[in-house]
Amino acid sequence: MDAIQGSYRTRVRYGMLALVFVNVVINYLDRSNLSVAATALSGDLKLSSVQMGFVFSAFGWTYAGLQIPGGLLADRIVPRILYAFCLMMWSLATLSQGFAIGFVSLFIFRLATGAFESPAYPTNNRIVTSWFPEHERASAIAIFTSGQFIGLAFLTPVLAALQYYTGWRGLFIVTGVVGLVWGLIWYLFYRDPLEHPRVNKAELDYIEKGGGVLSGIIRSANKTSAWHWPIGSKY
C-alpha cells in the first residue's frame, strides 16, 4: 500500500538506492580499467610480467587490509560526506594512473585506489539499513550489488572503446573524471532519511516500523526525537 493512515507514502528510498547503484558501477569501472589497459600500458612503460603482477595485486592488498578500518569509518561518518570523499579520492587516484611514468608510480596509485574504495561496501550497507525496512533490505542489496556485474559485463566494451580512441592514459583520465563529477553529484543529492527534504513522515514511519535504523534528529511541533546510528553495527 502507498498510504499509511490516509497519508501518501513517498518513495525517496528508491532514489537513494539508485545513487548507490551508480556508485557501485563506478567502483567496479575503476577496478577493472587496468585489465583493459594492461597490454598497452605494460608495453609503453616496459613493465615485466612480475611487475604487472604486483600492480594487479596492489589494489587487493589495501582494499582487503582496510576493510575493518573502512567499516569503522562507515559507523562514525555520515554517508554523504564519507562516500563523497572516498569516491573523489579513488577517482583522483584512478585519474593519476593516466600520468604514471613507471612501475613505482603506477603501483602507488593502485594502492591508493584500493585504500579509498575500502569503505564503499560498509557504507552501502549502512545506507540500505537506514533507508529500507528489513523485509526490503535483501532486495535493495541485490539491486546495488548488481551494479558490479553491469559495470563489468556491459561497460567493459565502453572501456575498450575509450582506450582505442584515447589510449590507455586517456582511459584512466576519463574514468577518473567521471568519478570526480559523480562524487560531487552524490554530495549534492544524497541525504540520510531524516535530513532529506522530499521524504514524508509516512515513509519514515514505514522504514522505522519495518526495522530501518534512522539516524539524525527529526523535529515536530510537539516533540524532538533522536535516532542515533549504533556504533559497531554490522550494517
Kindly summarize this structure in a few lines.
With 235 residues, the protein is mainly α. The chain contains nine helices and four strands.
Keywords:
single chain, 235 residues, mainly alpha, two-stranded antiparallel sheet, 9 helices, 72% helix, 5% strand, disordered N terminus
Report on the structure:
The N terminus and C terminus are likely disordered. This protein is mainly α. The radius of gyration is 20 Å and the shape is elongated. Helix content is 72%, strand content 5%. The two termini are 27 Å apart.
How are strands sequenced across the largest beta sheet? 1-2
The secondary structure category is mainly alpha
> Low-confidence parts lasting 5 or more residues at pLDDT below 50?
1-6, 216-235
Radius of gyration: 20 Å
How many β strands by DSSP? Answer: 4
Distance between the termini: 27 Å
What portion of residues is helical?
A: over 70%
Shape: elongated
Give the rounded overall mean pLDDT: 88
What percentage of amino acids are in beta strands? 5-15%
Name the assembly state: single chain
Name the helix and strand elements from N-terminus to C-terminus, one letter apiece: EEHHHHHHHHHEE
- Largest pleated sheet: 2 strands, antiparallel
Per DSSP, the total helix count is 9
